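TEACHING EXERCISE
Course module: macromolecular assemblies
Task: Read the component lines below, then compare them to the predicted structure of the full complex.
Student: A.B.
Group: 4
Components provided:
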Amino acid sequence: MHFVNAVPSALGFLFAGPLVPADPGRFSLVEKLTLAVLIFTSAGLFWKRFGVVLDKILKSRKDPGFHLGNIGKRIWDFFWEVLCQAKVIRERPLPGLAHAFVFWSFLAFALVTLNHIATGLGIGFLNSTGIFGQIYFWFAALFAIACAISIAGLFIRRFVVRPIWLAREGHELSWESGVIAGLIFALMATYLASFFVADTGPATRILWWTHTLSLLVFLPLVPHTKHLHLILSPFTIFFSRGAFSDIPPLSGDEDFGLVTGKDLTQLVSLQAYSCVECGRCTEHCPANNTGKILNPKEIILGIRGYLNEYGPTAEELLLGKYNSQEAAFQCTTCGACEFQCPVGIEHVPIIVGLRRGATNTGEWDNEYGSKLFNAMERNSNALGLSALERDKFIQKQELPIFDGTQEYCLWLGCMGGYDPKGREIIASFVEVMRYLGTSYGVLRKEKCTGDPARRLGNDLVFQQLAESNLETMQTQKVKKIVSICPHCVRTIQTDWKEFGAPPEIEHHSEFLARHQAQLPHNKTDEKIVYHDPCYLGRYRNIYDEPRSVIASAGTLVEPERTRERSFCCGAGGGLAFLGEESGQRVSSVRAQELVATGATTIGAACPFCNTMFRDALANGENSPRLLDIAQIAAMQLPQPAAKPQA
Amino acid sequence: MKIIVAIKQVPERDARIRIDASGKWIDLQDVEFAMNESDAYALEEALQLKEAHGGEVVVLSAGPERAGKTIREALAKGADRAIHIQSSDETELAKFDALGVARLLAAAVKDEQADLILAGLQSDDLGLGQTGVILAELLGLPHATLILKIEKTETGVKVLRELEDGWFQHLELPTPAVLTIQSGNSKLRYATLMGIKKAKTKEVKVVSVADLAASAQSQTPVVTLDAVKLPHKQRTTQILGGTPAEAAAALVEKLQFEVRAI
Amino acid sequence: MSSVLVFLETKNNEVSRISWEALAAGHVLAHGLSLPLDIAVVASPSNPILQKVQGKAPRKVYVIDDALLHAYTSDGYTAASAQLIDQIKPVSVVFPHTYQVRDFAPRLATRFNQVLISDVTGIEVSGNSATFIRQLLQGKLNADYHHAGDGISFLSIQAGAFRADEPQAGETTIEPFQPKLEASQIRVQPGEPFRASAQTVDLNSASILVSVGRGIKEEANLPIVQELAAALGAELAASRPICDAGWLPMERQVGSSGQTVAPKVYLAVGISGAIQHLVGMKGSQCIVAINKDENAPIFEVADYGIVGDLFEVVPALTAAVRKAKG
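Instructor-supplied answer key:
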């Protein structure tokens, strides 16, 4: 044989220009028939499973309120995240790049594979003597090398290094992944090997059939494994809900959220079947990282398991065999999972949907939850305090009442109106606005935006609050709102849309950033670490505005997990009101991370983050100062000689 | 078990107190209303009994049209049907004393043959704390007040009653009986979306006060509320200022030499 | 035979303080209407407390005694009281506003086609008519009530609303009253009263009480207040939320659902002064309030107040007390 020549041939490959794979020659009729039968069998087995999956997805109910808008963004996301594998690489660089090569090889191999099968049927179309064929085969070979190395590396990562995020509960190793990796490697190896064998020789034939069998075994395995994402994920990414953590409206009198299989929608089912079990969601989940049982990956796979066993028209509870109520209610809705997912799964609407199913039907029986909902109904604020307390605060701070003539309505929110720390933030922000001469007023009566009810799935309370507030805003002619709380901003701007047209609203960091030129700066050397609130960062894409305020006062320092990867403070999702958590406190973990930067001040932009860290830092000696950006900005204002008596 | 729960819609606790033009009540403009707190606990107790033993929970309320919202809330939490004794305006019921109101309630339920009638201990607005007890006397039924827990027994119910100074007592009484429920004994369930939607199909029987007054043998009230006033401070308070150390020293001096306690 | 009839309640073989206050109220009414005052009490005629009752100058003391009344039941007390009232036909019947009275007095009033005017905080008599003052909306409003018609009026008096009288001289006769009761009339079977915990704390015997409320924030902060109590030689008390949370036992609770106290000094630390608490300590001789909210209702009833952070004021106070005591 020519193996003796193989090595110099291989080297010559690199220097002497493209070689081509060996031509297997003519196939006998028996071989062609065999091939045809194998193809039909493989395709049949593929469809046997894929058809079922497709059926389950299509038989799920239609998503209420979903429309295929913003096509430009969808096409861009498809290009950037699917074709360029941007998120795959960016969030886990080395394994991500390896995966990208495997994926790009699949694309590159498209014609190779078609030609391969066609050759077997006697209708091969890529001419290995023509220049196109030569260049293409060489090009595909480069990818094959990259793919072989990548898949081998990924195999080692999965089976030798064994990162915990890849595991599933009860299964540390995924044998199907090993098999698939083996098949892919075999495909690449057989392709590359075919460069070094003679045309029409027995070796060539063996390689050809090995390659073919690898393909035809691979195909039916796809719908039975997580490799279904090969087919589904481009659709999943294209058919995203259209916005981050986009909670769909309830439709009609019988819709209470995700209660049973009947409530699963097409998007949810599509996403459930797209999961690749990579565990990036779980890796970044603050609950999972602090000892809670919540595992975002298992939530999605739990829905997949439910669909596999019961289907999309079943009456069994979703929070039952495959998913637990306890886990669903440990979520802070921080969105790290949804942000990380490379195949477009939108975890937060699903978790909120499961919560809705439990809360709206009364299945969720939780002492703190009941107290919270009763407080929101009785007192119209999440803290259960008398509205008179808020009135007293307004009087004490001499805040003007909004009467329709001022430019801004300053929204206090529950924290700004009742919490001592929140009130300090309001007082500081008011100082800044007074300095700038901004015209603003506060509403005489404010009800909670309903954020905790919304995230915990209580649509009754949420609707009552949203509608009441929208009416007030209309009668009071509120046009623009500024708020110190990212939760209020999110809920007013986005969630209230389900019940009316909310006024424009911005977060005070946006206001402060815009006015930076007009505000005095007293920059020191002090290290100030900034913590990105979930509802301002991932939810609203505001990262730089708060930083500009901090940078004007001191040296901005970033924590290890920052910007889109910021680690939650633990308060979101209504959890601030639900009593003690199991495992470590999320706020303690994050507080430690912030303290570890060596900064002497922690800069916050959310009153919830502020409250959570204050409690977490309370027990430490030499804890850094904890200041909201409003306080940082106010500190730089010229201090009056005699403050007016509060 | 068939349980009737008497509930009252009262002004919410945070309502701004301004005396109205008649001088006999507060100005109700911009005032929001809620279910009386101890009635909510009574309803919770009734619903728990129904969940344990089956049966029916009927909600009974006297009030103007706006009371319908609180009645629906009770239906949303799980009550099966309701009877609304509807007054024509805000002042009609004010002309009845507690005995008069209780007579209306008794007339509305005389054919119901309930096993238990539950009421809250007292209302957050008038605070007389008697309606349940009067109802028991009018219906000739045994009663108990300040109840924290109810258990069904072979012969009736066994209840836990709160006494003063941290003492408690169990009582056994036959049914039918009337019980008035103390707040705070169990956690209140929240009204759910599903509950509200189901409530829309539940029966609310509306009967007017005027129609009922005849069969209720109403008499002229023996007790009348003639005027309301804002309270004035009873004593002058001396606020001791300064730093904590200064205020503390001033207080100790007062306690030593003026109060002569140390 | 017209008179004002005051029902007293006994507790541990003592007439309860709130009963003496009801008696004082009865005297106000009787004096205003120029009527004699009688007392009724369920007790055995040989009970030594009757000596004390004599000294409070009623005209007659009706001692209601029956085996079926040894344990309180609403049916028994209602029937027995009704029979006495039928016999002596008073103009007005006055009760102390206790849990027990709230249990049977409305029933009793209904039997006479009357309505109990409950939880009265003031009585004003002019001419032949009396105005009874009650609180509405949890103490946020005062209301004037009147009794109409010729029937008997029934009242119950709020704790601390009237000052218990000093003993007066006067002619008193003790008259036993034997009601006609049948066991079948008593439909409720009462069990033995029991305490939630074994400890016995008597807040009423302390002359100084240091009472802690929600302002203390956490159970772990209680030592701050305990030290102050120790320095003052005071007993520790609390508002309802503290006891509900289990941070202090129930018998330390002061308020409408706890104990009613009237010590020489009542120090309310971090207590806002909600009406349910005020009701339990209003009668204290000297009330001191420490609260960071200057608008807290507790300051309305306090004699001395410090507006400040209790975490700073209380330790400073403890130090100052220790220094003064030497």
